[in-house]
Amino acid sequence: MNDLQTIADRVEIEALRGEFTDAVMMRDRPRLAALFTPDGALRMPNIPVEQIGREEILAGGERLQSQWDFFVQNTHPGTIRLDGDTATGRAYIQELARTLDGREGLNYAVYHDRYQRTEEGWRFAERVYEVRYLDTSPLAGTAPHATQGSGTDPAHATATPAPAPSFTDPATAEQLERVAAALRAGGFAAEILDDAAKARARIKDLVPEGASVLTGASETLRLSGIDEDINASGQYDAIRPRTLAIDRATGADEIRRLAASPEFVVNSVAAVTETGSLVLASGSGSQLPANAGGAAHAIWIVGAQKVVPDLSTALRRIEEHALPLENARAQALYGMPSAVNRLLILNAEPRPGRGTVLLLREAIGY
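Now predict its structure.
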């Protein structure tokens, strides 16, 4: 290989590493995945994450990036060692990050790389991320809320204020399809149904008679009739009526055990993101263990107005829309306010077949 080819290869590999950082910063997951060979691997043992192949890298990037409040990555050039159509190298990373659940910090890391020459040019065969220094001290800065002008090209980025989202308008057919695809990539079963009546009928297919079922305190379930079907029909071992009949002072442990591990939990969510995350909010947290994994099977019925682009908007939807409505309901029924004391975010379902999301084309509930 002549010197000019060597120089060209080094320049292209360095551009590949820069393209990776740009795709991460612009949250362009398809472009990020395309920088790898079809069977390429992205390994981050410190997180821990291991993604093999472009589809896993794409889905994993969506799950990871949906958790960010902000993220900044700087790449510093490292070594490149060429060996014909393969190469190895290192790149040095400095990152600042804050996640939506409050984790934040500064780190310095190394990417240990293997590169492969392909018909598309040089691509990553493997990137292994090694953290060398981590500082989790609170960060003083904030991320200005901005929208990107033309998508992924920073030259066309515009720092215009993000428009206030509507939390009552139903999602479009395209949005529902994106949500369903992202949920399936995360291990959930996802179905798109016309309305609550279809969901009510589908529940009867999914939940066998006699099964123990916990229902969430959900307006979606109440308005659709699903709550009545489960808790008043006598066809199921309904957990909620049983817990309501137990004395709170003497039977708290029994109530907790019954609610934590039924065969089925049927509930709604406060929001579902286009990146495939389900977000539930609770005042007491009593419903959350079954939703998180305590129930053998979980079914969530989600009105079309609950679709949001990301977790940041999901949290806004809870605070600005769902909580005021639930607060008014709680004041009327119980004479006391509601609160978001517990949050559950389900980014993926590790047990295939456990979780089913019924996405409705109509708006229902909060």
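The two ends are 65 Å apart (CA to CA).
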